[in-house]
Amino acid sequence: MDATRTLLLAASQNHWLRDRASRYAFVKRSVSRFMPGETLDDAIAAAHELKKRNIASVLTHLGENISDQQEAENVASHYQQVLERIRVENLETEISVKLTQLGLDLSPELCEQNLRRLLALEHPARTLWIDMEASGYVDATLGVYRRLLADYPNVGICLQAYLHRTAADIEALRPLKPTVRLVKGAYAEPSEVAIRSRAAINANYLALAETLLRAQRRGEVRRTAFATHDPRLISRITGFAAAENISRSEVEVQMLYGFNAGNKNVWRQADGVLRC
């Protein structure tokens, strides 16, 4: 799982790999389990199949660190088409975007403008997720998120459990009633910025999950999603929720497409809201 996550991250960051790797049959075979296809039609078809199994979905477009304004605007236009297809197809599918794909490296104002275009089209009952990128982008990403949250309560933010700062970031966001997706983190970060031990990352993930669930129960967090494929971690989170009398329907687990899709044990532990 870690190797696949690293490969997908590398593909999103490398223009050559992103543009050319899909031409090779062995690459297609390697990632076909984890990506439903290369087109919007493929993604929409997969969302329909998941809907039949009562699984909601989140769509994203691979890519980071765009350095051309027109390309950033093209990405925003592509996501506008995605939102329109979701509406026409009557799906409850959400989207997740990276700010460097929408022009953050060029200008926070350009990035925010592109995001507002998308939020204006998103259904208010669905979340538009902002992915978190490498640690150097955290402050800028949170700045954009705070400004947008004032106008769009349905915008959500991704936070990374392996960063030392994340507990403080959650505390700072609480007065704004954020929507949070908690992930472990996939970027290569130095030890002064991030926890390096897998066991310590898992322990911090669980502690942050407990904090978020308590805050959600108190109405200080609108919605929390736990992005993990780890069955032991899912079990501990759902066990904590049960002990706190938090309904299973309020425990949302998000997984990459293809991970654990056939694992009934994980499905039972994630019995609540499951998204791929």
Structure commentary:
The chain is of the alpha/beta class and 276 residues long. It has helices at 2-13, 15-20, 25-31, 40-52, 69-88, 108-121, 138-149, 166-173, 198-217, 231-243, 264-269; strands spanning 58-59, 94-97, 128-130, 155-160, 179-183, 223-227, 252-254, 273-275. It has an eight-stranded parallel β-sheet with strand order 1-2-3-4-5-6-7-8, covered by helices on one side. α5 (69-88) packs parallel to α6 (108-121) and α9 packs parallel to α10.
Radius of gyration: 18 Å
Number of strands: 8
Termini, distance in Å?
A: 15 Å
Report the total helices: 11
Poorly predicted sequence stretches spanning 5 or more consecutive residues? 261-272
Average residue pLDDT: 87
Shape: globular
Question: What share of residues are in beta strands?
Answer: 5-15%
Spatial order of strands in the largest sheet? 1-2-3-4-5-6-7-8
* String of helices and strands: HHHHEHEHEHEHEHEHEHE
Helix content: 40-55%
The assigned structural class equals alpha/beta
Largest sheet: 8 strands, parallel
Short description:
With 276 residues, this protein is α/β, with parallel strands linked by helices. The chain has eleven helices and eight strands. It is 47% helix and 11% strand.
Keywords:
single chain; 276 residues; alpha/beta; eight-stranded parallel sheet; 11 helices; globular
Task: Summarize the SSE layout with pairings.
Blueprint: H1 2-13, H2 15-20, H3 25-31, H4 40-52, E1 58-59, H5 69-88, E2 94-97, H6 108-121, E3 128-130, H7 138-149, E4 155-160, H8 166-173, E5 179-183, H9 198-217, E6 223-227, H10 231-243, E7 252-254, H11 264-269, E8 273-275
Helix pairs in contact: 5-6, 9-10
